[in-house]
């Protein structure tokens, strides 16, 4: 799969008189990218910029030839987002309907929609949840269903905002395995440093800037050192 380059050029995000992200310039071409840093550093804001959920106050965010300010709708199809709180993402009362929901917008034939739902449930080892009422799921089960809904859409890039917070060890490993298999690009915001071990690149965000950008082990060492200071 040819992955479009993601570029942030002179990007700042301001809320009121507060600079949450400050003049960020980065180009993302890797397939597995982690984003770590302290609470409130700006990680979620950065991740939300990448599919146009947040627009820059200054500068531009480019996905291939498209910019989030001008091509929000096209970019939403290319860049999926798995929210930290799955309750924000699950829409339909029954799990399999929820996973099928987004597929309707892709104009796929019904048989293919059903097949994709089943395949995705199977890949994530959650086929047993297919007929469950969404509101009766545990937090971790909801997180897996939210993940399935985005995976079923097969976007080129998937952004995960703290995807493992509610997962037990087994589901965390299933998630990690799923990420390692993806042909898509995954950008993962997390406090769970272990899941980034095999990633190609990790950004450390400190106070609205990219304080470190490199290999996972070096980025984690930088973050640990910063946290102890
Ligand atoms: N819509 C908003 N309006 C005002 N301030 C905001 C808004 N969204 C985020 N912020 C502020 O911007 C800062 C960065 O928030 P962000 O959610 O990006 O941090 P984070 O690094 O993801 O933190 P955490 O690890 O706690 O999730 C925080 O101080 C937050 O309060």
UniProtKB/TrEMBL annotation:
Residues 6-229 form the ABC transporter domain. Transmembrane segments: none annotated. It holds the Pfam family ABC_tran. GO terms for cellular component: ATP-binding cassette (ABC) transporter complex. One of its GO terms (molecular function) is ATP hydrolysis activity. SUPFAM superfamilies: P-loop containing nucleoside triphosphate hydrolases. CDD domains: ABC_cobalt_CbiO_domain1 (cd03225). The keyword Transit peptide does not apply. Keywords: ATP-binding, Nucleotide-binding, Transport. The keyword Transcription does not apply. InterPro entries: AAA+_ATPase, ABC_transporter-like_ATP-bd, ABC_transporter-like_CS, ABC_transpr_CbiO/EcfA_su, ECF_ABC_transporter_ATP-bd, P-loop_NTPase. Belongs to the ABC transporter superfamily. PANTHER family: ENERGY-COUPLING FACTOR TRANSPORTER ATP-BINDING PROTEIN ECFA1 (PTHR43553:SF24), HEAVY METAL TRANSPORTER (PTHR43553). This is ABC transporter ATP-binding protein. The lineage of its organism: Bacteria, Bacillati, Actinomycetota, Actinomycetes, Micrococcales.
């Amino acid at each position: 799969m040819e992955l479009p380059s993601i570029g942030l050029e002179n990007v700042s995000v301001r809320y009121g008189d507060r600079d949450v992200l400050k003049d960020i310039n980065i180009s993302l071409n890797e397939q597995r990218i982690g984003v770590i840093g302290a609470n409130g550093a700006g990680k979620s804001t950065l991740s939300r910029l990448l599919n146009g959920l947040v627009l820059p106050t200054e500068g531009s965010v480019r996905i291939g030839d498209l910019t989030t300010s001008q091509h929000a709708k096209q970019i939403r199809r290319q860049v999926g987002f798995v929210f930290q709180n799955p309750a924000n993402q699950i829409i339909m009362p029954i799990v399999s309907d929820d996973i099928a929901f987004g597929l309707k917008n892709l104009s796929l034939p019904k048989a293919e929609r059903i097949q994709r739902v089943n395949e995705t449930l199977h890949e994530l080892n959650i086929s047993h949840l297919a007929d469950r009422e969404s509101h009766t799921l545990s937090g971790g089960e909801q997180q897996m269903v939210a993940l399935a809904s985005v995976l079923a859409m097969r976007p080129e890039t998937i952004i995960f905002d703290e995807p493992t917070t509610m997962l037990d060890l087994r589901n965390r490993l299933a998630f990690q395995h799923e990420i390692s298999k993806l042909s898509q690009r995954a950008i993962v915001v997390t406090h769970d440093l272990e899941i980034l071990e095999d990633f190609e690149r990790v950004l450390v965000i400190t106070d609205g800037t990219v304080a470190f950008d490199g290999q996972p082990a070096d980025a984690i060492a930088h973050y640990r050192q910063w946290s102890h200071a």
